[in-house]
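Exam revision sheet. Question 4 asks you to relate a sequence to its structure. Input first:
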Amino acid sequence: MTEEKIKPAEEAKKSLLFYFLYQRNFMCATTEMAIFDGFIADVFAASENRLAYEIEVKISWQDFMSEIKAIRGEIYAKTYKHKAYLENLGQSKFNGTVRPNKFYFSLPYRFHEKAIKELGDSPYGICDLNGYVHKIAKNLHEEKVSDNLIYRMIRKLSRANYELLKN
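Answer key, structure tokens:
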């Protein structure tokens, strides 16, 4: 049996988890977290002071630009999510769904300057694939992560740990 080759996005998510857990000392970080109205966060992390960070990994410029088009409302995919994040600043919930305090795009370093220009005055931030920030995200709201969301993160991580151990 041959070992499966790790895809660049998976490697980036692993690096981002390391960054939040070991360099930033966040209390919890996970991948593929259902966070907003059916949307899945590539990486979702909660700090010890209970602020939530969502990180969307974009390996290619084309992938990033499709997200920018969604932010601008030019394509439907994810437009609803970004509209809710950007038009409801200051609110932690939208239609009863939790939103992160900060939102980052994680991109290869070579795209950072162009990406920062594309985002303009958006509150979204830019970090590299290892988590180092190149444009600081502004708060989308100030409320702390709820006990329910922390519980969901812990359950998700506990299930993942069980699956690793059972094999």
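Marking note for examiners. The chain has one domain: 8-166.
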